[in-house]
Amino acid sequence: MPFSDFVGNPETIHRMREMLARNRFPHAVILSGAQGSGKYTLALMLARAMNCLEQPSSFEGGTLPDFCGRCSNCTRIAQSADLDARFAEAVEARENLRDTDKKETRLFVQTHPDVLIIPPDPPQLMIKVDQVRHVIETIYYRPGEARERVYIFTSSSFMKEAANSLLKVLEEPPDFATIFLLTENAGEFLPTIRSRSMIFNLGALPTAEIESRLAKLRPDWNPRQSALVARLSDGAIGRALSFDIEGYIAARSHALVLLKSALGGKDSDHTELFKTTETYRAGAEGREKIGNLLRTFYSLLEDLMFLQSGTPQLVRNTDILGELKKMSEATDFAWLQRASDGLGEVERGLRRNLLRSLSLDAFATALERAS
Ligand SMILES: [Zn+2]
Q1: How far apart are CA 109 and CA 89, in angstroms?
Q2: How far from each other are the two terminal CA atoms of the chain, in whole angstroms?
Q3: What is the pTM of this model?
Q4: Are the beta carbons of 142 and 28 closer than 8 angstroms?
Q5: Is 21 in a helix, a strand, or coil?
Q6: Residue 133 half-sphere exposure, CB side, CA atoms within 13 Å?
Q7: What phi and psi, each to the nearest 5 degrees, are found at residue 218?
Q8: How far is the CA of 233 from the centre of ligand 1 (A)?
Q9: How far, in Å, from the CA of 70 to the mean position of ligand 1?
Q10: What are the pLDDT digits (tens) for 199-208?
């Protein structure tokens, strides 16, 4: 999987590869971009390009370093690509330790001796000081099988002490090491960390580009589905590729029941509403289900806002545009505002553990009384 497989942000990738070619790649890099924009994928590609034994190059307005994907360094680094799976294995391995060891064991993903992935440590899901200490303990040793030691921090949620320790490494990094700091927002890092790193941003891709990529990469989706997913993924190709379209449509059909029931006024038949809300139960599964429902509900309200404000080109649920237009005629800004506030209340109620179905019913009927 060479650089040509990376989707989007060609100028940024080009610039980074030019730095590699000139041996001017910075020792600390902040890669910022939305969830699913490809930060981790890119960091692993760069780690392979730095350490590939074949050292191939490709011609793109100049000869640029690439990686073969087949040598022992490339293949071992690539084993870290499925971060969720490797992370789950690391968590499980720690769970199986004796209690005393468990407390002292910090979480890492490592499939190559010179490339270390540092994920946020559960249950707090923060980077902890002991994780950074381990980086400090190893970073000053020359790499054994690679040319460059690579460290990838996959989150910018650092405990305070951990951030301060990281700063110490960034003040004096060895020549043969590169640290990647991945974040959705570079502003989350201390200014002193930012000033010692070079910041690269992976911007959102145009909807049309995601749509055309999906046509090739997700042939199981029909054009209508690809168009919908492209609009819902906020320009992040990773999010688009892993989008749960069935789950989304299911949650949205429930949101539509609630919405229609609320818009139907006092005379509307509530049978379908109650049948729907009854399926929302307590427990972790119910929590996730209602989370999806609320998210899709927000996206529908947003689309109705776009229609109200005369910007139908911004509507994301394009596959039900006709239905949305009809609903839009029955609403106004004030109602949409109330609905949005009402949703916020349901969310707060859920945090207080109110019965799920009850707060959903209350939400739908409150909107109706107001209409
Ligand atoms: Zn290789």
Answers
A1: 9
A2: 55
A3: 0.85
A4: no
A5: helix
A6: 8
A7: -125, 70
A8: 32
A9: 5
A10: 999 999 999 9
